[in-house]
Write a structure and sequence with these properties.
It is a single chain. The protein has 16 helices and 26 strands. By secondary structure, the chain is an alpha/beta fold. α1 packs antiparallel against α2 (about 30-50), α6 crosses α7 (about 210-215) and α8 crosses α9. The longest helix is centred in the first third of the chain and has 18 residues, at about 30-50.
């Protein structure tokens, strides 16, 4: 099974049903038109660029129909999509493009200035950059068949996730693992034929696989472009979607606006929340506004859609918020989960590291065999998350063994931020931690030791980070210390740093 075969099936099953609505233009695409546009893009990619199956094509852009056609078109052409986060700094984008070995960069017109900054390096590396508009044309009936029959073990995508010490780390997914994840989604949720899903999330992360699953079950996708809480509520009233997917940061901002705007949101039957756990306080506020319609997704880029907690469980969480905090539900169809202490699988109720196995798990990390071997052992993916299983086989997440910070739905490795901070001439030492935050899930916070006799302020750090880090990686709080707290082994005591930061909360300008 491959991505293009699923698209072909959808076009044959629901040719005249509405597949896609572009909320920016109110343009409607039938399934026949939608899949025709994807396959037209796939054909034009092969006709325009000298590439071979398995060659990488990078994508830079927003949640537009053109980006979606290119995303699915690259995979349908047997090439490997490398979706880039537009918020990354120039050096970070270049690092990922070069690490992937991309032959081509396709970009949405709005990102032409970004590409201009990249162009000298791209040209030096023989990488061709082209606007998506030159490849994706509004000729949806031109091609009805896919140009390539992809094998299930062909690589479909490289998805970059937070890398240690600034080194890019790409998760490798094949057509087979993508399709297994799609099956997990399809079996976990109710049938969507005729349902409308409003999307206000970016299309570059692995989470965008939910959109393809929705389409593959005959649902209609509404592309809402950039997230803005007032506009989200307006789109719900205009298009009457039945479902949407949000991160807690979105939800908090929507609730603030809804409490003033009081829009009609009664069409929504399911709001899926992933990327970070909702606090009991946020959950209660959300249910009061929208009703008990919230479901929770647990997965990682390496193993998407591994657990699902349906909206029907909302009453249980309201009745017992303490004992159900962190509950992410039962495993999905193709997924196995155990909890381990490193030597053996632990019984229900005992906390350990969460291990995942199944056909939806990544093939490995791109060109990093040692890192792959460290997390994939005997078929099990070692997540670094701490959790336990209850007597019903449901997973409860209780923290992280790894130091990864999840802020606003994005991953940040502390070591990467520390490396940049220590590049400032006035910084002697730096330690970066995640601090719990109602709006962001976690915020990036830094403890800094200045070099003796060198003047430095929070404004200096902010200006330096703005030049050298993506916005989601910049510390929102900074604390200057005489020395970093360490154990007698010399290890930085992050718990004490979190306590000190929580006590001071010295905010950097945003």
């Amino acid at each position: 099974m491959n991505v293009s075969s699923l698209l072909e099936h959808a076009a044959k099953t629901w040719p005249d049903r509405c597949a896609l609505i572009d909320a920016e233009t109110d343009r409607h695409y039938s399934f026949r038109e939608f899949v025709g546009s994807v396959f037209e893009c796939a054909h034009r990619l092969l006709e325009t660029f000298d590439t071979r199956p398995g060659d990488r094509i990078a994508l830079l852009g927003d949640a537009t129909p053109g980006f979606l056609f290119a995303d699915y078109g690259v995979m349908s052409a047997g090439r490997v999509k490398v979706s880039l986060d537009p918020s990354l700094a120039t050096r970070e984008l270049l690092a990922q493009i070069h690490d992937s070995g991309a032959r081509v960069l396709l970009y949405c017109p709005a990102y032409a200035p970004h590409v201009d900054a990249l162009l000298p390096d791209l040209q030096a590396g023989g990488i061709e950059a082209r606007s998506i508009d030159t490849i994706v044309r509004d000729q949806p009936m031109a091609r009805t068949t896919c140009p390539v029959q992809c094998q299930s073990d062909w690589i479909a995508a490289l998805n970059y996730t937070g890398g240690t010490t600034g080194i890019p780390k790409a998760v490798v997914h094949t057509h087979g693992s993508y399709c297994a994840a799609l099956l997990n989604i399809a079996e976990a949720r109710r049938r969507w034929t005729g349902d409308r899903m409003l999307n206000v999330r970016p299309l570059w992360p692995i989470a965008a696989i939910l959109l393809l699953a929705h389409l593959m079950q005959g649902g209609t996708l509404i592309l809402g472009a950039h997230f803005e809480p007032g506009r989200f509520l307006e789109l719900v009233e205009r298009y009457r979607p039945t479902c949407t997917s949000l991160v807690p940061t979105h939800l908090i901002r929507i609730l603030r606006r809804w409490e003033v705007q009081r829009s009609d949101v009664t069409s929504l039957a399911c709001i899926e929340v992933g990327a970070a756990a909702m606090s009991p306080e946020l959950f209660e506020r959300a249910v009061a506004a929208f009703g008990p319609i919230f479901s929770v997704i647990y997965g990682l880029t390496e193993a998407p859609w591994s657990c699902y907690r349906p909206p029907s469980s909302a009453w249980e969480l309201l009745a017992d918020p303490v004992n159900t905090l962190g509950l992410v539900g039962a495993t999905t169809t193709t997924t196995e989960i155990v909890v381990s202490d490193g030597l053996t699988h632990l019984p229900p109720g005992v906390t350990g590291e969460v291990l995942i196995r199944g056909p939806h798990v990544m093939q490995g990390y791109w060109n990093q065999p040692e890192l792959t071997a460290a997390v994939l052992k005997d078929g099990w993916f070692h997540t670094g998350d701490l959790g336990c299983l209850d007597q019903h086989g449901r997973l409860r997440i209780q923290g992280r063994a790894k130091a990864l910070i999840r802020t606003g739905g994005k991953s940040v490795q502390p070591a990467e931020v520390e490396e940049v901070l220590c590049g400032h001439p006035a910084v002697l030492e730096a330690a970066v931690v995640g601090v719990e935050d109602l709006e962001w899930g976690e915020i990036v916070a830094a403890a800094i030791v200045a070099r003796p006799g060198v003047p430095m302020s929070a404004d200096d750090i902010h200006a330096y980070c703005r030049e050298n880090l993506s916005s989601h990686k910049r510390p929102k709080y900074v604390l200057f210390m005489d020395a970093l707290p360490r154990s007698h082994y010399g290890k930085v005591l992050t718990r004490k740093i979190r306590e000190a930061i929580a006590a001071s909360r010295t905010s950097l300008p945003h």
